[in-house]
């Protein structure tokens, strides 16, 4: 797919305004400070079942899903997946296509990593719900880390369903498939998206999750069609995973990520997260990963933060500059007045996906 111009300001603004209107983020946002000690968790849903794929109720009535939740037509089949495809040019929406996507809860087994993960979220765009769905790009998104955090934060706090429905409405039912895996584990801990004593989170994200996606869904195979992103700790994971595996993930969305994997102090992080191995800790830092893999041939990276994010907002321009120096095609997006909260992260993810839409082939270039 040809690289497109990055003058997508109007599209980004339209998408973000559509999302703000659809979900009224200013009223319903889940604030990052929900995890105050001793206070109840207000935004996390009850622990989901882990044995089956089930549909999550939505505010907009949709057709009854198949018994397993994922339409049979979404099975990859025997046809080789294209690396990328300019669906904005070639796709013709069929009659009777649903007007909204479908959000599901799915179990992604930790076959190689043996990481203990809760169920993931899966959003399928209207184009994926047709009788003959096209191979689509895919976005892997991750929540931040706090008490009770997990994949469903992308729905309850980040309003990912409304975001993706808005994108699909703008693009004739086309949008990437979205998968939200659990990189934290049942206790919402911080295994830091590395393999170590706290769990093999990196192998889960780099091997198990992509293997499940490609074996269950009709997705494109090229790196330009695969995006990894997240908010806060999830943003840190996104730059770690995306920078470390550019052959799989050609696009990165890092919203208010940390400078690197951390459990607080450097000493605590090395001792508990890396079994005392300081060299392994240094290799896991995004700055080191970027330096080790430069020059990047074809990676697009979107860095975003709130203008009043006093937690990690100051990291965003630093990480963006590192990525740019390593050869990535980089843009930054700052939400004026935004803080370290889902009310910032929701619009930021929408803006990142709107920016990437032409590269993903779901919007005109």
What does this structure look like?
This protein has twelve helices and eleven strands. It has helices spanning 9-23, 25-28, 87-90, 153-156, 160-170, 201-216, 233-244, 266-273, 278-283, 286-293, 315-325, 342-360; strands at residues 54-55, 102-106, 120-124, 138-142, 177-180, 195-196, 199-200, 226-231, 251-255, 300-306, 329-335. A nine-stranded mixed beta sheet has the order 1-2-3-5-4-8-9-10-11, with helices on both faces. The chain has a two-stranded antiparallel sheet with strand order 6-7. Strand 10 (300-306), helix 11 and strand 11 (329-335) form a beta-alpha-beta unit. The protein is globular. The chain starts with 8 loop residues before the first helix and ends in a 5-residue tail after the last helix.
> How confident overall, as mean pLDDT?
87
Q: Total number of β-strand segments? A: 11
Strand order of the largest sheet: 1-2-3-5-4-8-9-10-11
Radius of gyration computed on alpha carbons: 19 Å
Strand portion, in percent?
Answer: 5-15%
Helix content: 25-40%
Structural class by SSE content? alpha/beta
Query: What is the number of helical segments per DSSP (H or I, 4+ residues)?
Result: 12
Largest sheet: 9 strands, mixed
């Amino acid at each position: 797919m040809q690289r497109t111009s990055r003058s997508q300001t109007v599209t980004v603004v339209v998408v973000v305004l559509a999302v703000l209107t659809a979900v009224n983020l200013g009223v319903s946002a889940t604030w990052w400070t929900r995890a105050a000690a001793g206070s109840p968790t207000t935004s996390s849903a009850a622990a989901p079942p882990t044995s089956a794929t089930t549909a999550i109720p939505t505010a907009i009535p949709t057709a009854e899903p198949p018994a397993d939740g994922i339409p049979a037509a979404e099975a990859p089949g025997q046809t080789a997946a294209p690396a990328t495809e300019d669906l904005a040019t070639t796709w013709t929406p069929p009659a009777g296509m649903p007007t909204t996507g479908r959000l599901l809860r799915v179990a992604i087994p930790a076959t190689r990593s043996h990481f203990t993960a809760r169920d993931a979220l899966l959003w399928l765009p209207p184009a994926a719900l047709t009788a003959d769905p096209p191979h689509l790009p895919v976005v892997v998104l991750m929540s931040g880390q706090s008490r009770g955090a997990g994949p469903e934060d992308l729905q309850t706090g980040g309003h990912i369903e409304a975001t993706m429905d808005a994108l699909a409405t703008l693009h004739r039912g086309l949008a990437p498939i979205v998968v939200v895996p659990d990189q934290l584990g049942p206790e919402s801990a911080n295994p830091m998206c590395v393999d170590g004593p706290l769990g093999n989170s990196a192998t889960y994200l780099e091997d198990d999750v992509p293997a499940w996606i490609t074996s269950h869904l009709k997705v494109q195979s090229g790196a330009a069609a695969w995006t990894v992103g997240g908010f806060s700790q999830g943003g840190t994971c996104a730059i770690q995973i995306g920078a470390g595996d550019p052959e799989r993930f050609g696009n990165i969305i890092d919203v208010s990520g940390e400078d690197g994997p951390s459990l607080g102090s450097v000493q605590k992080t090395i001792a508990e997260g890396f079994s005392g191995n300081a060299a392994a800790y240094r290799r896991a830092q995004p700055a080191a990963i970027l330096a080790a893999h430069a020059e990047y041939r074809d990676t697009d990276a979107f860095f975003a933060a709130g203008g009043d994010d006093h937690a990690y907002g100051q990291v965003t321009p630093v990480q963006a500059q590192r990525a740019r120096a390593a050869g990535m095609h980089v843009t930054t997006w700052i939400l004026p007045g935004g803080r370290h909260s889902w009310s910032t992260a929701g619009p930021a993810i929408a803006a990142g996906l709107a920016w990437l839409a032409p590269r993903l082939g779901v919007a005109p270039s």
